[in-house]
Design brief:
Distance between the termini: 18 Å
CATH architecture: Sandwich
Structural class: mainly beta
CATH class: Mainly Beta
Length: 208
Amino acid sequence: MSMMMGAQAQTTTNVFQQTPNEIIPDANPTGLFSTIVVGEISGDIQSVTVMLNIANGFNGDLFAFLSFDSGYAVLLNRIGKDDSNPYGSGSSGMNVILSDAATADIHLYDGNVGDLLTGTWQPDGRETDPQLVVSSDPRTAMLSSFNNLDPNGTWTLFVADMASGYQSTLVSWGIVITTVPEPTAIQLLAAFGGLAAAGVWWRRHRKF
């Protein structure tokens, strides 16, 4: 017997954006911080997606993370940097979407010198020192670290340029937060009603 035990919760998508249009200090690990304040969202986080727009520069120089509450995700960690390519990707600037659900790891993008990086990618996720990071490092800091948190509060983006020679600008960034609302009293009653109905059916059809 198949039985629905209650109404499925409907997800809600919330989009927040910030346009700093600020230069990322060249070869300076103190980097640049930008914040987005989220408020009046009900329910817990089901997923987070990041939009990142950076102009010019050398993408292989950049390190970036997103932090909120107990969550922490490494978005960029010297794209393309590996044992065979210590400088990373020579692509210049990016306008990307970062999602755990994407099919490809952004760290593995090599690109041509001067190309603008676009598309949807998985975040880097490697917490390794940016001066030592390689593609084989474990990916332990993904966007899923924000799942099940209350989304309300201050979200912080950090971006730093870890090598000299090129100038990047953080044009804009944003977060797309998908939440699942807390069940209402009606939904709880519906679920209880489903359990009660299951009990009646079992009592009527039991064989012993």
